[in-house]
Amino acid sequence: MKNIPTCLIFVALFFGPMAWSQSQPIVVDSLTGSKAGLKALLQYKKVTGDHLEVLQIGDSHIQPGGMTEPLAYLLQKEFGDGGYGLAFPFQVAQTNGHGAYQTFSNMSWKTSKVIQENPAMPVGISGYTIHNSSPEATITWEFDSLVSGNEVQWVKIFHASILDSNYHFQLVNDQNETAQRIAALSTPHATVFYFPHPTYVFELRHEQFYEKQKSSTIYGVYVSNGQKGARISSVGVNGATYKHYSQNVLFRNQLETLNPDLVILSLGTNEAFQSNFDDTLFFDEVLNLVQMIQSIESHPVVILSTPPAVSIRKSSGKKGYYAPNPTVPLVRAVILDVAQRLQIPVYDLYSAMGGANSMKNWSQLGMTDKRQIHFSPKGYKILGESMSKAIQPQIPYPIIK
Fold first, then answer.
1. pLDDT by residue (tens digit) across 340-352?
2. Alpha-carbon distance 136 to 159, whole Å?
3. Chosen CATH of 84-227 out of 2.60.40.1220, 3.30.300.30, 2.60.120.1360, 2.40.440.10
């Protein structure tokens, strides 16, 4: 081996970390505001070993599920893995979904979503609704069997009333085992099933017991592995705003049945693209959703998140270019104001990723789409890890007995 000059070794050691830091964005973890309620919740769950139910609600940044995964990893490592949580059949609804599972159907389904002004069907816990008139229609779920905790033993289906026109349901796994319908835990609007053995694959089928049963309307599907621990679900709808969720009574009612302990609101991007953005009106919309969530029986801790520093397209002559969206700082200011007034924590994603001009930097590193609005899977993972690292200090150390 040839001798390497000492000066070159020094240069490599000094600039090596800088070169690495420039290969991915620098993120500053930032959880501000009053954390007392969050700390008390996590302390209580640590001491008692009770189940921890977490839900992240958002827009197109949340719908793919990737931004929620790092938080799920952290909390399930700390509190135990209770299973996957909400698992809506996004592919059957012909939209993008989570990477942890895939869904398939033998037929096409009609779809409604929470962002529609007058949806053809009511929309519930998932922000989407699917509908089919054929009793022969099926839906299959396939979970990634390589991921620990993804096995399914309990399934809850949110649906239209079986006392009205909705079919009954049957679940069968890939071993041809039929799940038991648990009548004591079911209602006309939600049916609970139990598989005798954990499974990664199951199929939903329909049963027509009465002549008036004419269709199947599904609002959401919730799965667990039957173990104590944490379940971290995400509800994201492309184009969603605070107002879309807060005005939806069925969403609120079905959210209450989940008994969430912690709800994270990751919204605000779509409001930043409204041409008539009104900060006073937006303040009321944020406040309405937070207070609606706080009013449910479980009285969950709420964390707000500011939107990312997305860009907006501008033009100079015949050329187009992307610049920081000037409305995002206004949206951020309102969210911070609501958090301060209600004394709840806020994850400042806007600042964490670098502030006003940061989206351009993320784009140059290949972490965004061409419009500099959405992130790559790696980009979402980095942002999700940043949020989980910001929350982690609020988790108490194990209690020594």
1. 999 999 999 999 9
2. 17
3. 2.60.120.1360
